[in-house]
Amino acid sequence: MNDGILSGFRLVEISAFVAAPLAGMSLAQMGAEVIRIDQTGGGPDAKRWPLSREGVSLYWQGLNKAKRSISIDLRDADGRRTAQRIVAQTGMLVTNMPQAPWLDYAALSAARPDLIMLAIGGTHDGQGAIDYTIQARTGLPFVTGKARMDMPVNQVLPAWDTVCGLLAASGLLAAERRRRMTGKGCFIRLSLEDCALWMLGNLGMLAEAEIGPERRQSSGNDVFGAFGSDFGTRDNRRVMVCAIGNRQWEALLEATGTTESMAHLARAFGVGLDTDEGRWTLREAIKLRLAPWFAEHDLRDVASALDAGRVLWGPYQTLDDLVRSDPACSERNPIFARVDQPGVGPYLTPGIPLDFGFARDARSRRSPVQGGDTAEILRQMEEL
After folding, report:
1. How many domains does the chain have?
2. 305: containing domain
3. I want to staple 38 with a disulfide (CB 3.0 to 4.6 A). Which of 43, 118, 224, 257 is the partner?
4. Which of 288, 315, 342 is the last residue of a domain?
């Protein structure tokens, strides 16, 4: 479909939710031919919110850009055989659907010995799970939100689905490279739960819970182990400010005129503020000394001073604010184009953030009509 860096790479996707569709779309936006197979009449995500005014799923469109879409009656034996033929001709499959007998790797690879198949499951032992149930088990909701441990707060971004989807794309690329070198296919299992545990381990959080000296507490918007927090401005806006390392710390103090005040603070408590650990230890006192400066200035002046000092900061804003007034979320950013999406009309649509040094194909941002490629794909199958 696209002339991209993965031109010639072919993949079938039979999926729902986030992780598997994200894996397929990431590859499709880099030029792979990705054929998404859904149940006739629409799969589980066909009408998933958010919806357009016309009732079209923006969720489905968002996760299926650059793919080809085919609808088959997968409840019917003939439909399942058609899907198996497409998989055999394509040679690669990603799915997170329950492993029915017709989707068994042994059965599929009998028709295509070098088949690569990646199956995403919920947990390592085969139990069902989605991002939000995994999120509850990780413990992170107890250190998210306000500084209290009795009210867990889930985050709305499906972070583990995202990690899982991008790791799945990496796994498929790795398996395809091995196949080119050896001629061998493989069956790859990937658990959503394991993706979460992998990242918690990578960030030191599991080790901290096992061998650390203290139990981590929820701390609102404070950045753990360093200095970062939110402040209110005179015009009732809020900003997030971070000072990771001494250069950023010194820049923040200079921008806010608090260098001398912080020196007095360090002497009074006998804690050095030239380390992230010291700044974390005295974070409450630091915030008390910084807050008046922010409260005395409007957001525009805060932005000017912090930008001039190259301080790490960002304004709190709603999604509406982001879309309506932030230049990062506009056609001034090359990742975006305004694309006429089927059944909805034009809206701002992102391509893949990877910049390979050549222009992004506009087709990589366009979503298919659900089932709209069925006739063409079936005709191409008959010609092979």
Report:
1. 2
2. 238-315
3. 43
4. 315
Same domain, 339 and 191: yes
Question: Per the structure block, which two tokens stand in for 128?
Answer: 């069902």
* CA-closest candidate to residue 369, choices 27, 67, 47, 22: 67
Q: Is 150 a catalytic residue?
A: no
Q: pLDDT 10s digit of each residue in the chain, 384 long?
A: 446 899 999 999 999 999 999 999 999 999 999 999 999 998 889 999 999 999 999 999 999 999 999 999 999 999 999 999 999 999 999 999 887 899 999 999 999 999 999 999 999 988 888 898 888 888 888 888 765 556 778 888 899 999 999 999 999 999 999 999 999 999 999 999 999 999 999 999 999 999 998 888 888 889 999 999 999 999 999 999 999 999 999 999 999 999 999 999 999 999 999 999 999 999 999 999 999 999 999 999 999 999 999 999 999 999 999 999 999 999 999 999 999 999 999 999 999 999 998 877 778 899 999 999 999 999 998 887
Q: Hunting for tokens 């509850």 — which residue is that?
A: 136
Residue 295: inside a domain: yes
Complete edge-to-edge strand list for the sheet that includes strand 312-315:
227-232, 238-243, 312-315
Q: Kindly name the residue from 45, 131, 161, 373 that is annotated as catalytic.
A: 161
Dump strand ranges (E) for 160-311. 186-191, 227-232, 238-243
Evaluate whether residue 348 is within a structural domain. yes
